[in-house]
Amino acid sequence: MERRRSSKGICSCYSGGSRSRDSRPPKPRAARGSFGGVEQLRERLHDQQSFPWLDALRQDVRYAIRTIVRTPVVSLAVIITFALGIGANAAIFSLVNSVLLTPLPYDSPDRIVVLEPFWKNRTNSEGFRTSSAPDFYDWRAQSHVFEAMAYHGGGEFRVIAEGEPTFGSVQFATPDFFRVFGVTPAAGRFWTEQDHRASIAVVSHDWAVAHFGEPSKAIGRHIRTVRSLEIVGVAPVGFKYPRATDIWFPSGVVPEAPRGGHNYLVVGRLKPDARLEQARAEMQAIGDRLAQQYPDSNRYKTVALTPLREKLTGGARTTLWLLLGTVAGVLLIACVNVANLQLVRAAARGREMAVRSAMGAGPGRVIRQVLTESLLLGGIGCLVGLAAGWLTLKAFVAIAPAGIPRLNEVHIDQRVLLCTLGLTALCSLLFGLGPARRVARLDLSGALKQQPGKGVIRARGGVGSRARSLLVMAEVALSFALLVAAGLLLRSFVELNRVDLGFSTERVLAATTSVPAAAPEQQRQATMFYRDLIDRVRQMPGVRQAAGVRSLPFVDGRSSSGYTIDGNPTPPIGSRPIAEIQVVTPGFFDTVNMRIRGRDFSAGDEYGRPQVVIVNERLAREAFGTGDAIGRTLRTGMTPDTNKGMQIVGVVADARDESPDAPAPLAIYLPYLQHPGPGSRLELLAHTSIAPETLAPSIREAARALNPEVPVRFSTLDEAFDKALAYPRFRAVLVAGFAVLAVALALVGIYGVLSFLVAERTPEIGVRMALGALRRDIFSHTIGASMRLVAGGLAAGLLATLAVVRVLQTVLYGVSPRDPLTIAAVAGLFVVTAFLASSIPALRASRVDPLVALRQE
């Protein structure tokens, strides 16, 4: 008893003397209850020491991975669909980014512009793209907004380095040429004003490495082209403007043409504080002053300024934006398909989500889980798509037309990666919201009553079915519009292949040669070389006819000139009609099967004899109307003696030799023997009765026998025509390929929705069949549901097509953008393929066993 009292005393002292029952120490069980369970306490401490949202995200990702693995078929379909859309977009966007969006590889490239004369009041609107040397010097002297300005010109010529004759792209330029682009030499130096007439050269980095091993070894070496040149500098890596130039030399080496001769391209660098609009206003004022000062040549001429990037990419811009729009449509269809697949997945997981909701998971938690799965599937699809896009990009670059600029710079860079990742996240979230909302609106009572694996669960309100139907119709509409665009491009390409060129390309071998000839004696030797070579080729077995021409068909850089007709009113220089100038040898028109009225050139039409000329039918119509052109006198800037004209001795058929989709230009043909030119270069054409390529070794041997320093390269006119169709073919093939992909995705969507519909309505189908419905009735009813979706999509697709074809107007040839035959054919093809895609689920519905279906119910 004393011990008990002593114990109470101790307790009294400790508790401050209170002897109430509440002051007694708690029992161990009560203590544990007041602190909570061990696991709960551990979780609270863990939450205080970590990031709860990170743990929740980790749980969502783990659960999403398990779900994806548990449903491999649907998951794989979503990933592949995403990958197709993302891969196509990554590939085409890489092209657009590298060619159109990435700045040029020069210092401050936005300050570099191209200066061109702009002609007013001219009978044909094209005018000249090249400038005259006197105009250039006036522009440079009178302008104040340019830091540097230069002109350049040239082409492909024979180049002899280390004793081996080859072809090289050669440009002559004024001293400020490299300063315009802000580049510094990789080795040696560039030329200055003091070197303006020196026989020196700068070569490209790649050319120096190919011929001398490394840039420094090229310095001091000599090469021969228009004349012997000493290499004093090597351009930096990657610099090859314009196009793929190998050699640059001072323009003072080449005699300059007068103000009426337009032979040069002009580039300039604006000062840092100068704006393009300011420069345009100043150059227009300079052009107006020159028009008053030189009315004979500049009365209708002013100056136009174009940013260099816009000038370089102008031809490819329409094609690339068209392709980007096409793949954007493919991505949209893929995303719609993914949304449909996600809706199917969400409906099939109704019981699972209902159980989670019944156990306390709120709508936000369930929606977050579904969006996490959507993002994870999108991320995997993005990785697969980037790999596929990289491979696709390589294939695109391989088949892309050579005229697309900056192809060597095309790659998947940081911008493409960021845009692709952002697009993937946006699409995953956007098209995951529909399934997430469906899951959040589940009827829990019905879902919990569902047996696992039996049927699907509908959301309250029945919006799932309507959403799936609208998505399918959107797929059909988009893919129909793309397929119509592809059909129109393919028809246009077929029409281009059928166009009457006015000359023949079959069995015509072209041998490209170059004999640089600056001095009169060299010109005479070059003329004799080509005369003898053509005579030898004509005597070869299998050759029907042979001739020479200055420029092959469908090649840029042709000469053009204004002309006048004696006896007709003479317009001022600035408003004279422009004609393409082509120099040919006797027999040219027979070689390419061009119809001629009058006579062809002959061996007697040589320098010193009365000058003659042949014109095409279009020029004859515009110049003489119903009168006869033969015997009349024509004058151009190409006439050596301005006091004498050239007598028209023949009229030939119009030739579409600039582009198959362009009308035949006004054309003037001059005899080569009267106009050999300072740099003699001819394309030797041989019309054969055998395979043209088999003659190449014989022609090469004949050329080397006459002059071992003349390089020879072979092609055919069929290849030239094929290259002329490169852009239309590239557009048609890629758009058609993407359209087929879009249609395939749409058909998969139709199949998926119809299969889901059959699974969802299996009990209903069983009841109908138990009450006497025939199998063909079930089949017809199911097919009818699919065809109604297709019909709605086609109706919407017709409206989408009207918007799409507006973009195609500038790239179509021989076919209307609203061609009813193409639209009807595409619609019929779509209906047939959709019927076939719907037949499998419809047959499955018609074969439902009523007993099995009713047992599920």
Question: What descriptors fit this protein?
Answer:
six-stranded mixed β-barrel, about 50% helix, about 15% strand, alpha+beta
Summarize the structure.
Helices cover 52% and strands 16% of the residues.
Can you put this structure into words, describing what you see?
It contains 28 helices and 23 strands. The relative contact order is 0.11. The longest helix has 41 residues, at 308-348. With 857 residues, the chain is α+β, with helices and mostly antiparallel strands. The protein is elongated and about 105 Å long. Helices cover 52% and strands 16% of the residues. It folds into 4 domains: 2-50, no CATH class; 122-299, no CATH class; 315-497 and 726-856, no CATH class; 515-710, no CATH class. Strands 1, 2, 3, 4, 5, 6, 7, 8, 9 and 10 form a 10-stranded mixed sheet that branches. Strand 2 and strand 3 form a beta hairpin. The two termini are 77 Å apart. Mean pLDDT is 82; it is low at 1-23, 123-127 and 451-463.
Fold blueprint:
Elements: H1 2-14, H2 28-35, H3 38-49, H4 52-70, H5 72-101, E1 112-119, H6 133-142, E2 146-161, E3 164-173, H7 177-181, E4 187-188, E5 200-203, H8 205-212, H9 215-218, E6 222-224, E7 228-234, E8 247-250, E9 265-270, H10 276-293, H11 295-298, E10 301-307, H12 308-348, H13 350-358, H14 363-399, H15 414-430, H16 433-440, H17 444-449, H18 463-498, E11 508-513, E12 515-516, H19 520-538, E13 543-549, E14 559-565, E15 578-584, H20 588-591, E16 596-598, E17 612-616, H21 617-624, E18 633-636, E19 646-652, E20 667-671, E21 679-680, E22 683-688, H22 696-706, E23 712-716, H23 717-724, H24 726-760, H25 762-770, H26 775-808, H27 820-846, H28 850-856
Parallel strand pairs: 3-8, 5-7, 15-20, 17-19
Antiparallel strand pairs: 1-9, 1-10, 2-3, 2-9, 4-7, 5-8, 6-7, 11-22, 11-23, 12-21, 13-22, 14-15, 14-18, 16-19, 17-20, 18-19
